[in-house]
Structure formats: structure tokens, C-alpha cells
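Subject: Interface between my chains keeps coming out wrong

I've been trying for a while to get a sensible model of this assembly. When I model each chain on its own everything looks fine, but I need the whole thing in one frame so I can look at the contacts. Pasting all components below, labels as-is. Any help appreciated, I'm running out of ideas.
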Amino acid sequence: MSYEIINLIDISKAFDDTLVLENIDLYIRRNEFLTLLGPSGCGKTTTLRIIGGFEDPTTGKVLFEGKDITHIPPYKRKLNTVFQRYALFPHMNVAENIAFGLNIKKLAKSIINEKVRDMLSLVNLRGFEKRSVDSLSGGQQQRVAIARALINEPEVLLLDEPLGALDLKLRKGMQIELKNIQQKLGITFVYVTHDQEEALTMSDTIVVMNEGRIQQIGTPIDIYNEPNNAFVADFIGESNIVDGIMLEDFVVNFAGYVFKCLDGGFDRDEKVDVVVRPEDIKLVSPEQGMLKGRVISVIFKGVHYEMMIDSNGIMWKVHNTLMEPVDTMVGINIFPDDIHIMKKVMAP
Amino acid sequence: MKKTWIAYPYVVWMILFIVVPLMLIVFYGAAKTTPEGIEFSLEHFQRFFEPLYIMVLIRSLYLALISTIVCLLLGYPVSMILASREYRDKRILIFLMVIPMWMNFLLRTYAWLTLLEKNGIINTFISFLGLPKMDLLYNQWAVVLGMVYNFLPFMVLPIYSVLIKIDRSVIEAAEDLGANSGTVFRKIIFPLSLPGVVSGITMVFMPAVTTFVISRLLGGGQFLLIGNLIEELFLKSGEWGFGSALSIIMMILILFSMAIMSKYEKENEGGGLL
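Reply #2:
Try treating it as a single job with all components included. I did that and got this:
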């Protein structure tokens, strides 16, 4: 058994003349929870549909366990999909929906019934066999869709924004449930979402995409702490992104102050993007601050306050558990650990 | 406040042109004139049970049934093609399907006369090929042809409108779960299109079973259908009583079959009559 279960090799896809995917290279490891993350229109769903067999890539190959499946129709692939809007069969009840795949394989009725029961208890829908799918809530329909896919014991489960239609609380619950199911059954999940928090919570690996290209592949911690570029930094969590100039290795000038940092390998006086997370900015008294600023607005966010601080025309977003009232002068300190330097992305 | 008065003109209209005529038909059908005056009688209804008239009814049902089946067999694939992804945006095809319906029904049927005649276009072509001329007209197949031609759009449109509404992702889900295209059709597309099929069948069968124009023009009067019979009783022999009785029997049959259809439709849920 190979370590990589799916390989995408140099996949590009064009609809009419618009390129939606460009040179996607990606491998998916067995039993990992991999998330394709990006804003809408970034090509993440198209990537998933190419893996599922619903779209043909314009160029490139899809390998499954090392074998080329690029032109194999979906019904012959050993993977199953949970669709965005569930796509349950409206003319069948819950049990018939879940049993669909097994009925096609012509398994014995008794085995099918038993597996349907197991699946229903896995997704916490015991006793729902005879219910019509229209009578279910969004969350319940979602569970049926998941059970319907999982009953076929696929090697890989593809999930296309499965929690998009659920409310926040239900979504959080389902995130944990899905992760549990994935770990319990030990199958590979390929998950598509635009919700960065969801991606951080559930994934082993996150693939950040934008405009048809992969921006960064890494663990949630890597992606959050070491974003590759300003797009990733901005998309994952909240960020302050300001223009800076690398004076020399480990020294950067931005916002009118020279900071120490941990990044090197740039040209002398190279223009860079400087990314600082709002929670990494320390507020001190004006005299002690590297920068000085005035509090413009304060919003209560539950765990912390979000303050906008104007320092010489640059707006800093700051998260802090202590509140500084509007119009107070404060000092801002940013330490080397918390400064992330990124090469400027060339303007297209 | 509900503006119920808005409905009054329609109520008047319906009473004048639907309720009153219906009552008249019932009256004529169940009345009998005797020297003493008018009395209630089921004589007209009894007369229907003579083998001659039963045969007419059976023939009407038989030809209508054949036409409906042919319409379904022709119409379903056409609907699928029209609703398929490649043709979905090409409204012109649906437009072409509908155009004949805008032309007068009689004209369209007359057009077939000139095509099928002994010296018509088809026979001219056949003899040009050196084959013997054929009797294409005035048999029951000509009548079936006329019905299929005239009523096919009524089969295609309801099926098309149901097919086009089927969520593409439901079909993809079935493929994803291992169904090849045949299975997808049998287990997903066809069951989901049943409401359209049911209303298509209703909309073809009803007019086919009561037509009298097609059978007169293309059947040459040799194939007396129930519609022709009623027409003749009213317009030629003046037997309004028996004509009314036949109309009532016809209406009961239609209502009965509609009830069966609508019950079936409810069981399958979704999609009403077009």
C-alpha cells in the first residue's frame, strides 16, 4: 500500500476560455483529513469534482493508488461524495437513500438492512429509517448524505462544503462529529470549505487556494503561523498587512520604525509585506511603545476586544482582553517572533 | 377584508357556460318525451349497452391508448434530449416543438390528408421509386398517426418541464454511489419524472379518446369513435337524449381515469398537471 492515495499531477481546467485551475500538483495521504480552503471561485470545488470524476481536467492526470483514473467515470471510482446541497433522492425514504449504493452492488437484503442500521446509529439517526427526506432538518439531511456515502466503505470521502447550510452551533457540533467519524473509520477525507476556522479545527493538512492556484500546503499550525504570502495571511485568521522594507537580514523598517525580526534572505532594501496578527500586538503606555497611536474604535467580541488604533495614518487591528477607551493614546509593541515577512506577490 | 367580489364575474361565467350546460346535458340524458309530457327515464343509458355502442367505446379507448403509448415512447426520449445539458439552453428546439400547437388543429389535420392521399406527396414519391401506391389514408393507423401528431407536444412539454427541474447533483450523487447511466435512469430520472409522465398521459389520452375530427378526416368516417357518435347524434339525427347520455358516460369515464391518475400522482408526490 502506498502512502499517497491520490495524486493530482499538473491539473489545469478551463471552462470555455476561462482558466479556473492552473497547474495543480497535490498529493493526498492515506487516512488524512485534507481541506481545500479558499474564497468562492478559487477552484476548490472544481478540484474536488475532478477527483470525484464529475469534471475532466483540461490537462493533467489524477492518480488513485498510483493508477491513472483521469478518464474513469464516477461510478467506477472507489470514492464517494457528500454534496453541497446534500442531493438526497427525494423519492426515497431515509433507509432507501442510504441503501442506494449497496442495492446497486446487489448485496443480500439482510446485510443491507444491518449496515443501514449501523450507519444510522453512526450518524445518530436511529429510528429514522422510514422518514421521508423532505421531513428532515438541514442537519439531519446532512447526516443522511454522510451515511449514504460512508455505507459504501469508500477509501476516500469527498465533502463539498457539507456544513455550509447549517447554523453556527450545529456546524460546530458537526465539525467535531465528522472528525470523530473520520478517525473512527480511518478513511481519507478531502474536505472543501471557505471557512478558515472550520479548516483549522478539523484538518491534518490544509491546502489554501486562490484564483485557481495553490497558495500554500501545510498543517493548520504551519499555515496559521507561517503563511507563505499576504493572501494566506489575510485569509487565515485576521491580519494587519503593511508595506515594509528589509534593511538587512533580520531588520525591517515599517510604520516609521525599525523592527527586529526573524526573517532573512531578502535583497537589501527589498520591498516586502509585513504581517502581524491582531492578537500579537502588545499595548503599553505611550512612552514605552515602539509606535504610538490613538484608539479609534472598540468592539466587544466576546473573548476579547477588537480595537482599531491609528498610528501615523496606519490602522492597526488589535485584539486584547483589556479595553482601552476610544481616543486614548497608547503605545504599540511588536516583538520579532510576531513579525512575518513576505515577499511581495508580483502584480498580475 | 377579502375581496371576494373580484371572483363574481368568473362565478357568473362558470354558471352560465359550465354549470348550466352540464345540467342541460343531464336533463336531456335522463328525460324522455312521452305524449303526456316529459318523464324521468334511464332509457338512453340502457341503450348504450347495446354491443354496437360498446364496440364504439372500446374502439375509442383502444385507439386513444395506442396513441398515448406511441406518444410516450416518442415523447420521452425527445423530452430527455431537450432537457439534456447540451440542448438545455437552446430554446429554439422547444419553440419548434410548440409552433404547430399555435396553428389551427383542423389545418394541421388537413395537411396530413394531402400527404397521405392516393395521389398525395408520399404516394407520389413511392411511385417515383417504382413501388406500388399504398392505401395510407382511411384506416385506423392513419387515425393513430393523426392523434400522435396532434397530441405529441402535450406529452413532451409536461415531461420536459419535470426533467429540467431534476437537480443535476442528484444524478451525480447516484453516479457517485455506483450507478451507471442505465441504473441512473431506472432508479432516479424515470421515477422523478413520473408526475410529468402522468400528466402527459392524461393530456394525450383525454383529447384522443374524445376526438371526432381526426377520425372523420383521416379515418374517412369508417372508424366511428365515441366523439363522432356524439357529434352525429346531436347534429345529424337530432337524438339529443342519447347524445347527452353518451356525453355523461364519457365524462364519468374521464373523471374516473383522472381520479386514478391524480391519486397515483399524490402517492409519488410533487409536480402537478401542467
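Reply #3:
Confirming on my end. Residues 71 and 146 of chain B are 11 Å apart (CA to CA).
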